[in-house]
Amino acid sequence: MIKLDYKNVDKTFIGEENGLEIENVFNEFQYKIAEIISDLNKRKDKPGQWLQWMNLGYSEETLWFVKEYAAIVKNRFENVLVLGIGGSALGGMAMSEALLKPYWNILSEEERDNNPRIFFLDNIDPDQMCSLLNTLNLEKTLVNVITKSGTTAETMAQYMIVANLLQEKLGDDYRKNIVVTTDKEIGLLRQLANQEGYKNFVIPDDVGGRYSVFSAVGLLPLALVGIDIDEIINGVKDMDLALKNTDIRHNIAAQCALIHYIYNTRKNKNILVMMPYSSRLKYVADWFVQLWAESLGKNIDNDGNKINTGLTPIKSVGVTDQHSQIQLFNEGPNDKIINFIRIEEFENSLEIPKIFEYTGIGYLGGKAINQLFNAEADATKMALLDFSRPNITITLPKISGYYLGQLLYMLEVETAIAGALYNINAFDQPGVEQVKNYTYALMGRTGYEDSANNLRERLALT
Ligand code: PA5
Fold first, then answer.
1. Is the CB of residue 258 less than 8 Å from the CB of residue 25?
2. Residue whose C-alpha is closest to residue 179's, from 147, 214, 135, 226
3. Centroid of ligand 1 to alpha carbon of 43 (angstroms)
4. Which pLDDT band, with edges at 50, 70 and 90, does 167 fall under?
């Protein structure tokens, strides 16, 4: 199992002002945490609770349908193009970047074991879109359109552009190049999928975008490029069993949630840094940032009190950002808690040759690059301690589907537990919806006329 080390929040290591008496904190919160975990598990099957993501690891049906379709289309496409944004894109991006060989899209077909390349278009930047669409051979591209609401303007605009291009090239056959992942009933994409007869996958009820990585939203793109999704789901299930433990001393999601909550509410930390020491996990940090920010940045609590809560998540990648953000983390405001992710064993090892021994860089020769990587991570941790900066470390034995399944599921449960500690709804996103609605209004969607007039008047003043 993945492990958590929270020694470096203890006041014996980082001092009274920024440290915790962690055993006392666990004692103080053990009943509350047990209550939260039992409550989540009790409510998870009830409609309207938005907790169906806790059951995704057990959906044999989804696994079966996804694998069946992936087998049918195998060898038919050179590329997979995912159209989606936010929770509809980040899970697939995080998992594929972690689990595929690095630089996948520029590897030869043989090196990719005849699996397609994969592209995620999670923005509508016109330059980026044009360049990608001009580069891909669309006739040989399977397009997976993903949207839970089936209405998001960015995804729908991308879909309209790509569907039109496909129609021009393939006529009626264009449908074979589109697979849709959306709600079973609601939304414009559902209507279109039914009308056009696209192959489609359902996002289950009560699964929000940012909690959907283990539904067809994340699993289908992964299966299409040959990733073993059973292995991922095995990791999810094993972690789910472990996290049913209501004893905080044996539940790493609860430990992480509580540590972050206490630092935010009692120790004036406002920033959570997610820092994997692995380039392959850089989108895992992006995925976590979205999960945490949209779930926990809330205006009001469950009792209607205005609280404007949230510990701002930011991404940092080791070792790269040692040469960028670490200066600020060490010497800037002591307002952060740093969450490292470390990998025990990398797939590869690379020896630094014993050359230039007579020069100042000779000390590196004969050592593995892995040793340097780990030394850098240890050096960062120690420097943070010198400056009394609290940090915790999650360790994965290696990068694999099994451990990634564990990690992402654990982070989802952590977020849900943190939501309960803050007494907020961690499963809605009114702040996001407001921007979506304003966009619909400004773009002339029917039903949004009053809002459009109001916005135009206000925009003229600013
Ligand atoms: O997590 C969320 O709910 C959001 O980030 C959504 O995933 C994002 O806004 C895209 O929405 P949709 O999947 O409805 O297109």
1. yes
2. 147
3. 23
4. very high
Could you tell me if 214 and 320 lie in one domain?
no
Reported pTM: 0.96
Q: How many independent structural domains does the chain possess?
A: 2
212 Cβ closer than 6 Å to some ligand 1 atom: no
> Which domain does 208 fall in, by range?
52-227
CATH of the domain at 147: 3.40.50.10490
pLDDT value, residue 462: 83
Tell me, in angstroms, the distance from the centre of ligand 1 to residue 7's CA.
36
444 part of a folded domain? no
Structural domain contains residue 329: yes
Indicate if ligand 1 lies below 6 Å from the C-beta of 218. no
Residues 61 and 182 in one domain: yes
Q: What is the pLDDT of residue 14?
A: 93
How far, in Å, is the centroid of ligand 1 from the Cα of 201?
A: 16
Instruction: Ligand 1 pocket test: pick from 52, 152, 415 the residue with the most ligand atoms within 8 Å of its Cβ.
Output: 152
How far is CA 247 from each of CA 26, 73, 87, 309, rounded to the nearest angstrom? 9, 46, 30, 26
Enumerate the active-site residues: 294, 323, 436
CA 146 to ligand 1 centroid distance, Å = 9
pLDDT tens for residues 416-439?
999 999 999 999 989 999 999 999
Region for residue 198 given its phi and psi (left: phi exceeds 0; alpha: psi -120 to 50; beta: otherwise): beta
Q: Is the CB of 148 under 6 A from ligand 1?
A: yes
Torsion angles phi and psi, residue 356, rounded to 5: 55, 35
User: Which residue is associated with the tokens 């490029």?
Assistant: 225
For range 4-33, the mean pLDDT: 96
For ligand 1, say whether the CB of 208 is within 6 Å of any of its atoms: yes
Is 233 within a domain? no
Instruction: For residue 19, give every residue at least 6 positions away whose Cβ sits within 8 Å of its Cβ, in sequence order, or none.
Output: 9, 10, 11, 12, 13, 388, 390
Whole-number pLDDT of residue 371: 96
Measured distance CA(361)–CA(350) in Å, rounded: 17
Q: How confident is the model at residue 378 (pLDDT cuts 50, 70, 90)?
A: very high
Mapped onto helix, strand or coil, the DSSP state of residue 281 is helix
Ligand 1 pocket, residue 429 CB under 6 Å: yes
Identify the pLDDT of residue 461: 86
pLDDT > 90? residue 389: yes
